[in-house]
Write a structure and sequence with these properties.
There is one protein chain. The protein is α/β, with parallel strands linked by helices and 216 residues long. The protein has one domain: Class I glutamine amidotransferase (GATase) domain (Rossmann fold), CATH 3.40.50. The chain contains six helices and 14 strands. It has an eight-stranded mixed beta sheet with strand order 2-1-3-4-14-13-12-9. The longest helix has 14 residues. The protein is globular. The two termini are 13 Å apart.
Length: 216
Amino acid sequence: MSGLVAIIDYGSGNLRSAAKAFERVVAEENLALSVAVTADPKVVAGAARIVLPGVGAFADCKAGLAALPGMIEVLSEQVLVKARPFFGICVGMQLLATTGHEHGDHAGLGWIKGEVVPLGVETSGLKVPHMGWNQLVSDRPGHPLLAGLSPDSHAYFVHSYRFVCADPAHRLAHVEYGGAVTAMIGRDNIVGTQFHPEKSQATGLQVIANFLKWTP
């Protein structure tokens, strides 16, 4: 495989840490890929793989993405028409939903049907935001993004809202935090993680490697 991995810069989060994690995997796995952080739709149009990170509120992230002229249109063309592998991280994953209910109701990209709702774990005595390490529980053991992960794999989370898939088959993995909380989603050439792979040490690097080698 070869080509460019485009990490979208729309003013949300520390993109450098994500880029460094992807660059590390490219080097360690000796992949014929380059990694670029970009806000230019023309660069994204030529990318082989696309990564959409995200930190903050759903509506702010969607507005930031929409503020880049032509970016949503290019993403839709690349991902939905040309079937380029796509990876959403944290709020970047949540933006795939139909609707986000953080501080009002806001339309998402609608690529994976579902809603982003409050964690709602306060009655269980658990803290919000959900912050720290949790054990991943596979819902789709055969999915390529889960390859090489042990039953004891843990990932790092920081979030107050959760993705509820309309189709349970689109939930690839979850964690237990006052009930099952979506940790990974996917359909076709699209995947996303609620956790931060760039902060999840060996587990995160394995998921990134799986994505970069994936041929959906």
